[in-house]
Structures are given as C-alpha cells and as structure tokens.
Design goal:
The structure holds two protein chains of two kinds. By secondary structure, chain A is mainly alpha-helical. Chain A contains 16 helices and no strands. Chain A starts with 11 loop residues before the first helix and ends in a 44-residue tail after the last helix. Chain B is of the alpha+beta class. Chain B has three domains: 77 residues, no CATH class; 108 residues, Cupredoxins -  blue copper proteins (Immunoglobulin-like), CATH 2.60.40.420; 95 residues, Cytochrome c-like domain (Cytochrome Bc1 Complex, Chain D, domain 2), CATH 1.10.760.10. Chain B is elongated and about 90 Å long. Classes of the chains: A mainly alpha, B alpha+beta. At the A-B interface, helix 3, helix 9, helix 10, helix 11 and helix 12 of A face helix 1, helix 2, strand 7 and strand 9 of B.
Chain lengths: 524, 305
C-alpha cells in the first residue's frame, strides 16, 4: 500500500507529462521558488549598489536593467501566479472534494505556457540589444523609445497572461461543477472562495494587459500612434490601460494570500472562523471594487482633477473589506486554543505587515498626501509590505502549513522558527526605513542618491543581507525536510478535507468522494 | 529634512498626521490584541477553545465605523488638495520643460535657466511639459509634484515661504541618468529676484554657445571635463580625430564645423565608436542656424582643450 501516493511512480517524464493537479502544483512550486530566489538575489545586488552614495558595483544603465528584471521576475513570474498556481492547483480540488480540476490537460498546458513565457522573459535579458530598462511598468513613451530589448520582455508578459487566464477559467469551472455532494457555496472553505474571487479577476482583467502590450508592439513596429505624442497618441492612455489590469493584479496576488491565512488561523486556534460570510463577501467586494481604483496610481500624472478625487474616494472604500478580514482573523483568535507553530508565526507576521501595508495605503490614497510621496521610496515600501510582507509571507505560511501534506514528511520546526525570526527581522530592517526615506523625498528608481539619504539606505542594505540569509535558512530547512520524520495525515488538527486523506495524498485524492454535511470549520 | 517650505506644506503635513495617528491607534491596538490572545489563549493555558457564534452587530460595527473614519480621511485629503489645483490668476507663470536629463525654466520676460529662482511669499504657477519622455517635477520641501508629459501641458502652483535652496528631483523614471536629473529651487527676496530676472544671458560671462547648449541640456550627457557620461565628452572636441561608425563601417575623420553640425542635427547617422544609437534625438527643429554658429564658435575658440 505504501507507494500509491501521487509522488509515485518516480521518473522525470512521468512528472513532465502528468495532468495530475498535485504534480502540476509541485512543478509550479519548484519553478516559482527558483524564480523567487533569482529575483531576490537580484534585489540584493541592487541593495549592494545602493549601500553608499555614488557608484559601487555597477553603472546606471546596469542598475536600470536590474530593477526592471527584478520587477518582471517578481511580478509576472512569482507573485501573480504564486499562490493560485502552486497551492490553488494542489489544494483546490482536494478542499472541495474533487479528484482533479475540471480540465486537467488545460491545466498542464497553462503550466507550459508559463514556462514558455518565463523562458522568453529570461531570453529578453540576453538576446537582442541589451536588457530592457523601462521598469516593469513599461511606461510610454519611454518604452517606445528605449533602444533595449523591450518588445521581447513585453511579449513574455503577454504570453504569461494566457497562463493566468486559463488557470483562472479552470478554477472557476472547477468550483462551479466539481464541489462534493452536499458542499453548498457557503459550506466551501475560504481558500477556495478566495481563489474563486481571484479567478474572476484573472479572466476579466488579464486580456486588457494583453491588448495593451500588443499596442506597444504595434506602435514600435508599425508606427501606429496609440501612446506616442509625436505620432498623435497619448502617453496617459497607456497608464490607464496598464493599471486597469495591474491594479486588479495586486488583488490577484493578495486575495489567495488572505485565503491561506483564513485557513491557517482556525486550525491553530481550534476555532471556527469568525464571520465566515463576512469574509466571503469581503473577498468578492475586493474583487469587484478593486477594478475601479486603478487611477490612484496616476494622481500626479496630469489626469483630470475630477478623476483624481473619484479614484481617491473609491480607493478609501476598497480599504474596508480588507479591514473587515483583519478584524475577523483576530476575533477568531479570541478564546481559541492557540498553538504557536511555524505556519502560525508566519501568519501573525503576515497580519502585522499587512496592516502596515494597508494603513500606508491610506496615506497614498489620500490626494493631499499622495502628491508628496508618489513615486518615492514610500511607495516602494508600501508595495513590498503588501506584496512581500503580505503575499510572500502568506506563501511561506502556506508552504510550512501544507508541507507535511504535500510531501508526507516534517521539516525541523526549531530550525524553521529560527529562519522565520531572521526573515522577519531582515524584512523589517530592509523595508521599514524606506517609509522614512520616502517621507524625506527620496524618489524611487534612483541609481544614486544625495548624501542626506545615506542612513536609511545603509539600514535597508543591511536588512537585505539579513533577509537573504533568512530565506536561504528557510529553503535549506524545507529541502532538508525530505529526510524528516514521516508526517501523519493530520499533524495540526485541521478540519478541511485535505486533512482527511493520507499524507501525501493518493493519486486521485479520495478513495470515496466525501459527502459534506456541515461547514468547513466545525470545531467542537 | 521634513521641513515644509511652501503654503501647502503645513496643511498637507496635518493630513499626514491625521491619517498616521488614527492608523497607529488601530495598528497598535490590533497588534497588542493579537499578541495578547496568542499568550493568553495558548494551548498550555487554554487547552479547550470556546466556539463563539458569528455576531452580526459586531460585523456591522466594524464595517461602518472604519468606513466613517476612512471617509473622513478622504474628505480631509480632498479639501487640502483642492486649492492645490486651483491656479490663481495673479501668479507669475514659469514654463518648465523636462528633457533627458535636465530642466529648463522660462520666465515671463523670456529668460531661461536650468535652476529655478523664485521670490519668497509670491505665488508662482507652472506650465509643465516634456521634450521627450515623461518626467515628474518634484520639490519635496514644498510637497508638490506633477508629471511633465510630452505633447501636453500640465499645471502646478505654490507660494514658497522660506528663503533657502531646495532640491528639485525628477520623480518619474526617464532612463539612464534619471537619478542625476536634479536641480535646485533657490528662493530669494523679491528684490534679489527682480535683479536676477533682469540679468540677461548677454550679461553673463559665459560664451553664448555654451549657454545655448546648457539650456538644451546638452551638458547632462556630454561633459566639459573629459568624463564619460551618456555621450562622448566635449573636452578637446574641435579638430580632434573621431572614430565613427557609419552604416556599420568604421571610419575616421576630424571634428570640424560640418561634422559637429551633422552630429547635432542627425546624431544616429554617424555614431562615435563605443556609443549606441537612439540615445540622442535630432535637434534640427530646436537649434537654429544662428545658434549653431555660436555653438561652433564656442567649440572652435573657447571650449576646454
């Protein structure tokens, strides 16, 4: 009976051609962790350059290429697919009591589209006329004029978009069609709910970035003037189209992260989630209102004054559903029976960092204050608190939470806790000083800076070194976990369906499809 | 460094304070609750969790109260922002142009400079535009920022309130030397300002050709001291031998009047070896024939050797 789980039979070909959602999830995990470490090291090199004023290890053009590739890798290859592709693929079918996603072959195709897109992105760094230097935002008209290899990078983002759309479509249909008998919508666990809200954004918003990137290519090759004023175009139109996708994309990153956190808290508190329906509604509200706030990236762009205040108002409103989630998470801890294990440490630090990211978002959403901190380090800090402190830490929480289920082994928890401590301290030291730098007026995307900004930059660079050390400790602990103790089916006392099957799960998840009679978090 | 020096700085800083203080109350309160629960209800002390039913009243309360608070934040930010967008009629108009990677400020009397000189306590409004890609005109001490968009004029205004020199940054990424696109706002007394404004380029000790080049940001890419920036240095340019790439073939010629004119009007046709194409635009419609005469005279007789 021993070798009937999804990890067998071994063999590379079996993995690369498998349509099993669990294997695809693990393949995404490996790819995304590799890209994450590459992107992280590139970020570390940037901090090395910025450790002192003046030129340290590279020239300005190299630095500009570096922050561009850091952004492209982290945004398009790591955080946008991130949780959906890895843990969504692995756990969505299991958590709703299905044997696989509804279109397994389409799922494998999505993975290969992702790999092709990733290869094009990597190739754009080496082929043609030099690494792109536009930043991941590709703002026109600079992206139309830059002599570097912009078109290939843009094409990579275009291809990756299809992977995202197809994964979203697959998840929507899976959730509609494959829930186990008895699992009504409001008996579904909250991670699948968050994936559902995310999937709709993926399907509806991603085509807009696709068409925008095609317009850039058309403008460069065919001289059609969409964005370049010398051809009769409008550069602000590009910003609108770009952010109509890229703002909802932030919710593609953070909604599944919220979903993961909502799974982990009840397990380690042994308590029913407080405000299940409020959390569901706030996920859908974030997905809905999140479409309508893109203009807050453009308060100083020269957009009309009317649009500025309308987008500001909507931005403040979208803060509410996120706040509701935080209140419900903390309320779930009240009178629980709390076990402070590694996934829970990451969860607590997620909530803390997410709150800081959220309240600094209020400062950026307010018109009067945004004007000062717009395009400064304040934005860089806010963004990394949400995307890394939020989505990244939720990813780490998820990997520590589901590791025993995915691989059937336990990592060394003492070492994992140490790694958490180093990662958390490094993160804070790296990004918190950036808020102060931003308030002092330090603009972002600067290769060099005036001497008065030195102190904050030095602290931040030290933080980067600490953070990278912590990340390698974490990855090492996880890799060493291959030889750890054999994990039981339910090591944390969870209630959702993945904890009812053996670790690692058998090939088609359930010997017998379960019938659902109660909500997902009915702790007694 | 946080010091505000414009009519807007005080009210904007109050909005910062308002949002930050309220947010900190929530952040600290919720963090304490989180840590306290983790300790108080740890499995050791509290082995059996108490299941608590959802509470509709509580959900409504923590939806409505934060909503009111954030709407007040929006409204405060909005009311402080409104006057920033309401350009006064009696303000002096300065036309500011950003280009890779320098600034030009043009005053009502036609005077141009790359440094912004303004009288204290007098309103000034700006017509902002760009000659190439998007830049952003940012003076941290004044808490003002607005993008400079090519093909479009955007606006900004303020009243400087302190006599001092302040940093002016480009805040929108604009290519290779973005981080060096820095100038100063020098705030002086109205009398000093009038005096400064009356000085024309003719009064300057600098050669007119050099002034023309400075006003067109030539010197932000071509140094006078021999250091290598984005383009080749101007030091010792005239009559020097130049290795050029023309149609992919290497050629050598001497930098004379004809060569320098071609290099300014059609820079990509003959590239100096070691420098890439598309970094410099054509100045055919920008630098007139008369100006070119001055520039050539500067290179021939006055430029550093």
């Amino acid at each position: 009976m021993q070798n009937t789980n999804y990890l067998y039979p071994k063999g590379l070909k079996g993995w690369l051609t498998s349509t099993d959602h669990k294997r695809i999830g693990v393949m995404y995990l490996i790819a995304i962790m590799v890209f994450f470490l590459v992107g992280g090291i590139l970020g570390g090199i940037m901090k090395l350059e910025l450790a002192q004023p003046g030129q340290q290890v590279m020239d300005a053009q190299t630095y500009n290429g570096l922050f561009t590739v850091h952004g492209i890798i982290m945004i398009f290859l790591v955080v946008i697919p991130g949780l959906s592709a890895v843990f969504g693929n692995f756990f969505l079918p299991i958590m709703i009591g299905a044997k696989d996603v509804v279109f397994p072959r389409l799922n494998l195709l999505s993975f290969y589209i992702y790999i092709v897109g990733a290869c094009i992105a990597v190739l754009s760094q080496f082929a043609g006329s030099g690494p792109p230097d536009t930043g991941w935002t590709f703002y026109a008209p600079y992206s139309l004029e830059s002599d570097t290899n912009v078109v290939m990078a843009v094409f990579a983002a275009f291809v990756l978009g299809f992977s995202s759309i197809l994964t979203g479509l697959n998840f929507i249909v899976t959730i509609h069609r494959l829930r186990a008998p008895g699992m009504g919508w409001f008996k579904m666990p909250l991670f699948p709910w968050s994936l559902y809200a995310t999937a709709w954004i993926q399907v509806l918003a991603t085509p807009i970035i696709g068409i925008t990137l095609l317009m850039i290519a058309a403008e460069r090759f065919l001289n059609i003037g969409f964005f370049d004023p010398t051809l009769g175009g409008d550069p602000i139109l590009f910003q609108h189209l770009f952010w109509i996708y890229s703002h909802p994309a932030v919710y593609i990153m953070i909604l599944p992260a919220m979903g993961v956190i909502t799974e982990i808290i009840p397990t380690f508190c042994q308590r029913k989630v407080f405000g299940y329906q409020a959390i569901v509604i706030s996920s859908l509200a974030i997905a809905g209102v999140g479409y309508l706030v893109w203009g807050h990236h453009m308060f100083t762009s020269g957009m009309s004054d009317l649009s500025r205040w309308v987008f500001s108002l909507l931005t403040f409103i979208v803060a509410i559903p996120s706040a509701i989630k935080v209140f419900n998470w903390i309320a779930t801890m009240y009178k629980g029976s709390i076990e402070l294990r590694t996934p829970f440490l990451y969860t607590l630090s997620f909530i803390f960092q997410f709150m800081i990211g959220g309240i600094t978002g209020l400062i950026l959403g307010s018109l009067a204050t945004d004007v000062h901190v717009h395009d400064t380090y304040f934005v860089v800090a806010h963004f990394h608190y949400i995307v890394f402190g939020g989505m990244g830490f939720a990813f780490f929480a998820a990997i520590h939470y589901w590791y025993p289920k995915m691989f059937g082994r336990m990592y060394n928890e003492r070492r994992a806790n140490w790694a958490w401590g180093v990662v958390f301290s490094g993160f804070t030291l790296l990004y918190f000083p950036m808020f102060i730098l931003g308030l002092q007026g330090m603009p972002r995307r600067y290769f060099d800076y005036l001497p008065e900004y030195t102190f904050g930059h030095v602290l931040s660079s030290i933080g980067a070194a600490v953070l990278l050390t912590g990340l390698f400790m974490m990855v090492h602990t996880l890799l060493a976990g291959r030889n750890g103790k054999v994990a039981p089916a339910n090591p944390w006392g969870g209630k959702t369906l993945e904890w009812t099957i053996s670790s690692p799960p058998p090939l088609e998840n359930f010997v017998e499809v379960p019938t659902i009679t109660e909500g997902p978090y009915e702790y007694k | 460094m946080f010091k505000g020096a414009s009519n807007f700085a005080g009210s904007i800083d109050s909005v910062f304070l308002y949002i930050t203080v309220i947010s900190l109350v929530f952040l600290i309160g919720l963090t304490i609750a989180m840590v306290w629960f983790t300790i108080k209800y740890s499995r050791k002390r509290h082995p059996k969790a108490v299941q608590i039913k959802d509470n509709m009243k509580l959900e409504v309360a923590w939806t409505v109260i934060p909503l009111i608070i954030v709407l007040s934040m929006f409204y405060y930010g909005y009311t402080v922002f409104l006057p920033m967008r309401d350009m006064p009629d009696d303000a002096m108009l300065v036309k500011a142009t950003g280009r890779m990677w320098d600034w030009t400020f043009e005053y009502p009397n036609g005077k141009k400079d790359r440094v912004l000189v303004l009288p204290v306590d007098k309103p000034v409004k700006f017509d902002l535009t760009s000659a190439d890609v998007i830049h952003s005109f940012y003076i941290p001490a004044f808490r003002v920022k607005e993008d400079m968009v090519p093909g479009k004029i955007t606006n900004m205004w303020f009243i400087p309130t302190i006599k001092d020199t302040f940093d002016v940054f480009c805040a929108e990424y604009c290519g290779q030397r973005h981080s060096f696109m820095i100038t100063h706002a020098i705030i002086v007394s109205p009398e000093e300002f009038e005096q400064w404004l009356a000085q024309t380029d003719a009064d300057s000790d600098d050669h007119p050709g050099l002034i023309i080049m400075r006003n067109n940001a030539c010197l932000s890419c071509h140094s006078l001291d021999g250091s290598k920036l984005v383009g080749p240095s101007f030091k010792g340019l005239y009559n020097s031998p130049k290795k050029l790439i023309i149609d992919g073939k290497e050629t050598q010629l001497v930098a004379n009047d004809e060569y320098i004119t071609r290099a300014i009007y059609d820079p990509d046709a003959e590239l100096v070896k070691g420098y890439g194409p598309k970094l410099m635009r054509s100045y055919k419609d920008v630098i007139s024939a008369d100006d070119m005469v001055q520039i050539l005279d500067y290179f021939k007789n006055h430029a550093p050797r």
